[in-house]
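User: As part of a screening pipeline, I want to sanity-check one entry by hand. Below is the sequence and the SMILES for flavin mononucleotide. Please return the complex as structure tokens so I can compare it with the automated output.
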Amino acid sequence: MPKVLILYDTRTGNTGRMAHAVAEGARSVGGVEVALKKVGGSLEELVAADGIILGSPTHNTRPSQAMRRLLSNLGTIPLGGKVGAAFGSYGWSGEAPRIIARALRDRGLRVVGEAVRVRKTPNANDLARCRDLGRAVAEALSPIEEEKGG
Ligand SMILES: Cc1cc2nc3c(=O)[nH]c(=O)nc-3n(C[C@H](O)[C@H](O)[C@H](O)COP(=O)(O)O)c2cc1C
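Assistant: Here is the complex for your manual check:
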């Protein structure tokens, strides 16, 4: 079964709320295994994943320190052909999600959807956008969807 891995960082819970909605959207697609974790575990789980969705708040115009550490380690594992996506909450400038999406693209992932950026606490509409993102990644991997696409 294809695997979607959602890794996120959050300090005050906003990106965490988004992450749970992304997972809910991914789980709404059948035939796909979904794992939701805080960033900082082993790189092995990225190797095993078919879809990788990364979420981080913006800290000083960049992703959080833990997320930057992960991004700088991405070059050490084979990622070509995987599907990726990015999201995150921010306060005023919100660079992190696009920086993450670019890093994933640079590593050969096929990034689906726009990076989802939410100012501060996600509202109902924001959470719906997060669910859509998770669903889009899962559908890109779902064997059923592939059959439909021919
Ligand atoms: C140390 C620190 C630096 C921050 N720097 C930025 C920044 O450069 N740009 C921005 O848009 N928001 C910045 N923020 C605001 C956070 O991105 C915002 O509060 C976000 O909602 C936090 O998400 P979280 O609840 O998932 O931690 C910063 C917050 C902290 C604590």
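Points to compare against the pipeline: The chain has one domain: 3-149. Residues 10-16, 57-61, 89-94, 120 surround flavin mononucleotide (CB under 6 Å).
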